[in-house]
Amino acid sequence: MSTSAVLRSEWIKIRSLRGTAWSLLAGFVLTVGFGAAANADTGDSEADSADFDALYSVFIGLNLGQIAAIAFGTMATSSEYQGGAIRASLTAVPKRGLFYAAKLANVAGLALALGLVTTLVSFLAGSAFMGDAAPDPGDGDSVRAVVGGAVYLTLMAVFAAGLTAVLRSGVAVLSIVIPFTLVLSMVLGEASGSITDYLPDRAGQQVLYADPPGDLAPLAGLAVTALWAVAATLAGWWFLRRRDA
């Protein structure tokens, strides 16, 4: 099969999975809805606080939206390992590298497209509810956060897809990655200092701040998350190449 045909077939697979569409929709609703609700309660005293970061505040819903991105990447990949579907896929596309790359390209492309819509609407909705304390939409930090937030969601989806290729189980990946991203950073807290700064969620979310609280600059933090995604992707490719279907 040609590259375009493989890409199209992977697109059809993802589109036909009901769970992937719901996870993307859930990511949008959770991110925008939670962000708007949280900023509706922003008072003048909170906005005047030295620790208040208006830019991060409008994107606070991404803490929930990232779970939907992880679920999307996981489900898009784990479907291959249900009922032995991976055998049929590799029979149709014996070049495993092409098969894997086409799947990841579809995961990344969809996550990025929906991520851009999600972060833009989240920014606009959160800013509207925040009132005078809202960040300037024309500011460079705001543009960086909107685009960077979408890239962050994409990287988390690809990270999950790579791990799913390693473990071949969506349940196992979700059981590991969701507590990892939601709980570990919270448990370690500030006591661990720079250790938490290099976790995939904490590092990538630096791009959402006007004044990042960690040691990493916004784009450097996003690069750390990209390294996590690349490592998971390469591990997934290694296991896909080595294992029997």
Could you describe the 3D structure shown?
It contains twelve helices and no strands. The protein is mainly α and 245 residues long. It starts with a helix and ends with a helix.
**Distance, first to last CA:** 19 Å
Q: What is the ordering of alpha helices and beta strands?
A: HHHHHHHHHHHH
How many β strands by DSSP? 0
Uncertain runs are: none
Mean pLDDT over all positions: 86
Instruction: Indicate the overall shape.
Output: elongated
Residue share in helix: over 70%
Q: What is the number of helical segments per DSSP (H or I, 4+ residues)? A: 12
Structural class: mainly alpha
User: Major sheet, described briefly?
Assistant: none
Write down the Rg.
Answer: 19 Å
Oligomer: single chain
The fraction of residues in strands falls at under 5%
Give a nutshell description of this structure.
The chain has 245 residues and is mostly helical.
How are the elements arranged and paired?
Layout: H1 3-16, H2 18-40, H3 44-47, H4 54-58, H5 62-78, H6 85-92, H7 96-130, H8 140-167, H9 170-188, H10 194-197, H11 200-204, H12 218-242
Helix pairs in contact: 1-7, 2-5, 2-7, 5-7, 5-8, 5-9, 7-8, 8-9, 8-12
Note the main attributes of this structure.
mainly alpha, 245 residues, single chain, 12 helices
